[in-house]
Inverse folding.
């Protein structure tokens, strides 16, 4: 769920492999939200994976043929030196990210929502299942739910005006030292601006209409662990500030440069450290450079018949190092675990030196687990360069599913029961009524009368025959994975439980669509921004007994705050339960409103988001389940982990990085 | 000034100085007018479709009972009790069911229509008008749809909750569920009818019974969480026999606030309701009770006897629905985090000190809001003047003084309903007529009647006199909470005979402490109260305030004297009680002994004419004084096997007595008045 940073590497560069490090947080706001909410997108073959298969799918041979391939990676980290041996695998995202990614919005340049000449919404491009489709009811939904109107449009500026960009101030001695290392770097405005932000609403707003006060002075692309060691050494020598950058999908202001940072800020982009260094089939682990992004990782492992199963909603862009640095969570964690369950070994470069464990074992009792200082450190301690992670054979069978419940309460009760019986599918998510209706707004034009007739029939059955109130009902989407037989068995078990809570099976298609939306929903915010609608997502974790109360109160608080702050249209305020645990659940909120008539929408937005977070905390929810703290949620850290807890973290920082080289000022 | 510190209060008290005089209050409508013009039967059979809470999950009373019984909270307590007492949970569960049945309400539209019909008949006979602020009703209607609502009416009469339910029916609002004392269950038919129209019954005392408390608390919270219907109860806990607002009880209030603290509901609205009677139905009953003649148990036959009352005229009733107060807004900045974050919410917990303080503050705030909207009739002013001019006052003079008091009352922010269409003479005359059981006009002089009742052959003169003074006093008392702050400043001025602000304030503070159970003060803001009093006096040109001094103006003397005299019965009453305690009591005594003792002591004083303070005979005043003395550690309270016993702390008592007996004050006032 969390988006994690991503990294890119340009195909053109010679073999560099390296690893990555902490970096960004994950997911873009909406995207992340979407992801989270959606539950783990991947479950099935969500787009990313599907895309992976398409792109590289042909390579998949028999397992036998794969083994040798795996061997090929086996020359570990000699960085450039070893590079000679193999042509490295290129990343999907080029080193010059702006070549295929939007500079002022989410995702790929070619993929976006537009209103076509007929005034109908359409999703462009070819990358996603929704691409090229017309969405006939989206416009009406936007008008009705958000009070948006096609006549009131406000567009972003089209290009980055490089003259607005703060100049790059880098000390010449450092540059000389840097050149001597032969590590690639750039001082170009576009490269620097691209790495000055994540995907919080205010950051995107600034890109569209203004300019950041402070951005990195230089972007450096280490190619391997040793490069990172050199860079950190140089930074210590010249007293620079390093901000690691992975996939740039942070939604916690983690990538924002502290405005008062006087030192040169180095954006350490891990995207070129993106190789799978080895796969160990006996122990089912893989050793991977931390800059690899989710889609590349799964695709390349897939070529060998494996996967990590870690699929945060941001997996198209977020990076392994970023996942580690933010304590990411993937939608299929019920089978594969969250990042802390997946990681076997971490190598991190800090100003104090390299930290790693001496062996790669499943568990050890050697004092507090040092991995837990690293995971969630959000780039404040160092750069994660290489990670050994568990891998699993690609499951034989996947099946989507969905269940309609008469209301949210019953749905939550059902999820709770499923968690109690510990039989949750790979992914299970429950969306509330507003989000269910939103899902309908994203339905593509129906191909045939027959389909629309069937839809009508289904609707009739559920609302009239079964007596579900269309303004109350809600839907759970499911993803099962494993042996075909077991999946079918599992499926029956889950549907039987659902039936006890009044749930009706609502088909595979609805489930699959739910997960697909996870990936495109992030694009929707950009469309909203064009029509005076701003929105964001946020998440929390909460004990089971408070899920209902928290969801209701937070949504209500948002509505009330909007009213008080003079927002003229009722906001879109919705939630979903996206992960189930033994002791609680992860809840994801979306919130959007039409800001016409408000002079300072971002300020109003931030006040409301703060109020919503206050409400979450007041209801016994956590500060974050997987988005992390960054700078956005720092103010609540003390109350979240106590004075002493904060002091412990500070003393670690003090020891590891006394000169605050990793000065992004997240977390503490 | 240092003394004001106290607990930190995040929200200011309710009486902001600016609002006092400019306070806009809603207009009243007389609902009986329509009743007098159309059929009661048709009214009783009208289509009744109240608006409901938006989050209401429809359920029957029986479903509520089930969910109470099955609630984690109650089950937890049952298990605990079973462990402690070694009983099986089934037996305790049975007990819980019994309690619930005894308590439970029921809603029957038939019963409601029956009430609607008969109450229409009764109210039309008893009252001239029933006036309601319809704007308040509209706000309430809105509130009911948004969040669970708790109604907090003032309590002066049994009519209170009948009237409220009647109004809710009239205005098509969901009938409130009322926490009423068990006494009503004794009234067979009426009790059942009340239950069927939504009342639920609670034992008056169940301090020690954990099961009872758990069942009751869960029952209330379940209804609240479901938004089943507005919940109604009386902060004062019982009917005020003196028409002074009683200090609030906190138990029920903290129960209804709990779902919000636990965030089981987003918010809860508290609605203060002020019900003012021009003439209280139970007026003489109360006076007897205060003098120690025990109150008759409520019974249906008793009610029937009261039928003769039906031929009497009880004037108008004013019901003022205050602005719904959002609990969330009150709590904002004070109780920002759920105090139940680290424990399961169903575990019974002691309220933290923060929360207790908060509940206390909310209770006082609500009572002050009630007071603010209590309607004062001309008779209240007349009674106040009369009591300072016993045994008789010339009618013309009475009218003149009443008019003068009218001006003062308005300046102090009192909510006066004066019949503007009548000349002052007529207004006073009609008030006297309405209260002809208490006063009469004899040869141009207004005098108190001998109220001695038919069957009271044995009553002596003192008793008779006390009866009528207490009855009359109950009306004057309605003025006191509006006047208390400026008046105590006036008293302090006279007691200290000083100009120094500091000294006057410290005396004011002493009085406020002593009278904390007698009048309603928001806790912890003595300085604000003092400034408020000074502000009002300054506004009326009674005093001039400089940074260091307070000076009474020439023309202010008479006002100050009047204000001090208004509170003289309390001053003298407490003095007599402290004299009694220092001289007459032996070691330990019970409250009963104390009341008997002080009663005899006072009777003697009154018979010998060494005091005129009949109000010291009021058991209300006696109990308040005792509570104040306990609070100030002048009397120590100890728990024994059967109740409490008290001992006097002589040293502290002497100090207090000195404060009271400082040579100048009271006597001088008396002469000034004469």
């Amino acid at each position: 769920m969390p988006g994690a940073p991503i990294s890119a590497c340009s195909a053109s560069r010679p073999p560099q492999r390296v690893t990555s490090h902490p970096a960004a947080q994950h997911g873009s706001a909406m995207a992340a939200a979407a992801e989270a909410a959606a539950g783990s997108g991947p479950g099935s073959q969500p787009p990313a994976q599907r895309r992976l298969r398409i792109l590289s799918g042909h390579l998949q041979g028999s397992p036998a043929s794969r083994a040798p391939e795996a061997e090929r990676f086996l020359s570990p980290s000699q960085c450039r030196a070893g590079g000679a041996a193999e042509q490295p695998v290129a990343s999907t995202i080029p080193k010059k990210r702006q070549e295929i990614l939007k500079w002022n919005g989410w995702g790929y340049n070619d993929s976006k929502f537009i209103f076509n000449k007929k005034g109908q919404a359409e999703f462009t491009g070819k990358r996603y299942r929704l691409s090229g489709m017309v969405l006939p009811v989206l416009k009406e939904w936007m008008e009705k739910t958000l009070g948006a109107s096609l006549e009131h449009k406000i567009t972003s500026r089209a290009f980055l005006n490089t003259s607005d960009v703060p100049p790059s101030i880098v000390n010449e001695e450092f540059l000389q030292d840097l050149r001597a290392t032969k590590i690639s770097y750039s001082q170009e405005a576009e490269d620097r601006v691209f790495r000055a932000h994540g995907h919080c609403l205010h950051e995107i707003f600034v890109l569209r209409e203004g300019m950041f006060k402070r951005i990195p002075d230089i972007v450096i692309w280490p190619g391997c662990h040793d490069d990172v060691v050199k860079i950190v050494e140089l930074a210590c020598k010249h007293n620079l500030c390093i901000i690691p950058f992975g996939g740039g999908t942070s939604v916690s202001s983690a990538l924002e440069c502290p405005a008062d940072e006087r030192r040169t800020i180095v954006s350490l982009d891990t995207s070129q450290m993106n190789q799978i260094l080895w796969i160990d089939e006996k122990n089912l682990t893989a050793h991977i450079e931390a800059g690899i992004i989710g889609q590349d990782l799964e695709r390349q492992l897939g070529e060998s018949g494996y996967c990590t199963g870690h699929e945060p909603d941001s997996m198209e862009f977020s990076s392994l190092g970023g996942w580690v640095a933010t304590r990411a969570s993937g939608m299929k964690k019920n089978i594969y675990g969250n990042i802390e369950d997946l990681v076997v070994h971490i190598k991190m470069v800090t100003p104090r030196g390299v930290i790693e464990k001496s062996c790669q074992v499943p568990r050890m009792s050697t004092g507090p687990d040092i991995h837990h200082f690293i995971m969630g450190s959000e780039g404040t301690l160092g750069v994660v360069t290489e990670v050994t992670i568990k891998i699993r054979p690609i499951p034989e069978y996947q099946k989507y599913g969905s269940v309609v419940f008469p209301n949210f309460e019953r749905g939550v009760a059902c999820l709770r029961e499923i968690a109690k019986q510990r039989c949750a599918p790979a992914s299970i998510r429950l969306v509330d009524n507003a989000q269910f209706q939103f899902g309908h707004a994203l339905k593509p034009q129906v191909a045939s009368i027959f389909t629309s007739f069937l839809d009508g029939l289904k609707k009739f059955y559920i609302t009239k025959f079964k007596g579900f109130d269309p303004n109350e009902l809600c839907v759970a989407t499911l993803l099962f994975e494993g042996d075909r037989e077991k999946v079918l068995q599992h499926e029956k078990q889950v549907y039987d439980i659902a039936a006890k809570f009044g749930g009706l099976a609502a088909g595979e298609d609805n489930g699959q669509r739910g997960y697909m939306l996870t990936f495109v929903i992030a694009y929707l915010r950009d469309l909203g921004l064009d029509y005076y609608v701003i929105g964001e997502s946020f998440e929390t974790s909460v004990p089971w007994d408070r899920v209902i109360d928290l969801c209701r109160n937070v949504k209500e608080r948002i509505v009330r705050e909007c009213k008080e702050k003079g927002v003229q249209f009722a906001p879109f305020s919705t939630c979903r339960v996206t992960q189930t645990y033994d002791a609680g659940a992860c809840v994801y909120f979306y919130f959007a409103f039409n800001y016409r008539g408000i002079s300072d929408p971002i300020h109003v937005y931030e006040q409301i988001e703060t109020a919503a977070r206050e409400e979450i905390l007041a209801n016994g929810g956590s500060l974050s389940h997987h988005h992390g703290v960054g700078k956005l949620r720092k103010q609540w850290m003390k109350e979240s982990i106590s004075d002493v807890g904060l002091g412990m973290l500070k003393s670690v920082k003090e020891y590891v990085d006394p000169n605050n080289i990793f000065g992004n000022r997240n977390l503490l | 000034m240092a003394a004001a510190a106290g607990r930190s209060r995040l929200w200011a008290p309710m009486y902001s100085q600016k609002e006092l005089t400019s306070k806009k209050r809603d207009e009243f409508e007389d609902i009986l007018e329509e009743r007098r013009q159309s059929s009661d039967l048709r009214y009783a059979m009208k289509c009744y479709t109240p608006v409901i809470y938006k989050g209401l999950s429809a359920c029957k009373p029986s479903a509520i009972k089930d969910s109470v019984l099955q609630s984690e909270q109650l089950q937890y307590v049952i298990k605990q009790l079973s462990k402690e007492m070694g009983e099986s949970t089934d037996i305790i569960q049975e007990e819980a069911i019994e309690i619930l049945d005894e308590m439970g309400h029921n809603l029957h539209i038939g019963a409601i229509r029956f009430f609607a019909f008969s109450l229409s008949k009764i109210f039309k006979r008893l009252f001239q008008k029933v006036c309601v602020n319809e704007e308040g009703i509209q706000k309430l209607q809105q509130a009911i749809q948004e969040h669970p609502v708790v109604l907090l009416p003032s309590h002066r009469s049994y009519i209170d909750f009948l009237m409220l339910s009647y109004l809710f029916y009239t205005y098509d609002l969901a009938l409130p569920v009322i926490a009423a004392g068990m006494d009503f269950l004794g009234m067979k038919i009426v009790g059942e009818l009340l239950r069927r129209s939504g009342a639920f019954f609670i034992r008056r005392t169940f301090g020690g019974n954990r099961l009872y408390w758990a069942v009751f608390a869960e029952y209330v919270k379940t209804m609240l969480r479901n938004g089943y219907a507005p919940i109604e109860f009386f902060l004062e806990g019982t009917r005020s026999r003196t028409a002074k607002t009683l200090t609030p009880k906190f138990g029920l209030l903290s129960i209804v606030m709990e779902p919000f603290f636990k965030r089981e509901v987003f918010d809860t609205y508290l609605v203060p309701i002020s019900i003012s009677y021009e003439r209280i139905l139970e007026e003489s009953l109360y006076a007897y009770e205060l003098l120690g003649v025990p109150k008759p148990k409520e019974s249906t036959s008793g009610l029937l006897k009261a039928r003769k009352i039906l031929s009497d005229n009880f004037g108008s009733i004013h019901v003022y629905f205050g602005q719904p107060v959002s609990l969330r807004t009150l709590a904002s900045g004070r109780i920002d985090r759920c105090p139940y974050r680290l424990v399961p919410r169903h575990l019974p917990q002691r309220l933290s000190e923060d929360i207790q303080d908060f509940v206390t503050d909310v209770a006082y705030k609500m009572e002050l809001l009630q007071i603010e909207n209590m309607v004062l009739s001309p008779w209240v002013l007349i009674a106040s003047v009369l009591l300072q001019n016993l045994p008789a006052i010339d009618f013309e003079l009475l009218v003149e003084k009443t008019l003068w008091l009218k001006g003062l009352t308005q300046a102090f922010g009192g909510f006066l309903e004066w019949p503007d269409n009548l000349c002052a003479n007529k207004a006073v005359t009609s008030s006297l007529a309405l209260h002809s059981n208490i006063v009469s006009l004899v040869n141009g002089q207004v005098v108190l009647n001998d109220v001695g009742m038919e069957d009271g052959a044995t009553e002596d003169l003192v008793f008779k006199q006390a009866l009528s003074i207490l009855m009359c006093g109950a009306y004057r008392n309605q003025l006191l909470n509006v006047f208390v702050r400026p008046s105590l400043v006036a008293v302090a001025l006279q007691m200290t005979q000083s100009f120094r602000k500091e000294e006057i304030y410290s005396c004011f503070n002493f009085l406020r402490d002593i009278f904390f159970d007698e009048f309603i003060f928001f806790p912890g803001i003595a300085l604000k109260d003092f400034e408020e009093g000074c502000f009002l006096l300054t506004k009326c040109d009674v005093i001039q305030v400089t940074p260091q001094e307070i000076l009474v103006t020439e023309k202010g003397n008479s006002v100050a004297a009047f204000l001090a005299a208004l509170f003289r019965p309390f001053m003298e009453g407490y003095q007599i009680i402290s004299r009694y305690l220092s001289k007459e009591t032996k070691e330990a005594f019970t409250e009963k002994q104390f009341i008997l003792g002080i009663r005899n002591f006072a009777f003697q004083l009154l018979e010998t004419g060494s005091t005129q303070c009949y109000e010291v005979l009021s058991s209300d005043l006696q109990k308040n004084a005792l509570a104040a003395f306990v609070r100030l550690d002048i009397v120590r309270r100890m728990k024994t096997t059967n109740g409490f016993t008290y001992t006097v702390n002589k040293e502290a008592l002497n100090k207090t007595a000195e404060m009271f007996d400082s040579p100048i004050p009271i006597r001088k006032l008396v002469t000034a008045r004469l």
About this structure: Chain A has a mean pLDDT of 87. Residues 204 and 666 of chain A are 19 Å apart (CA to CA). Chain A touches chain B through 14 residues (CB under 8 Å). The first helix of chain A runs from residue 29 to 38.
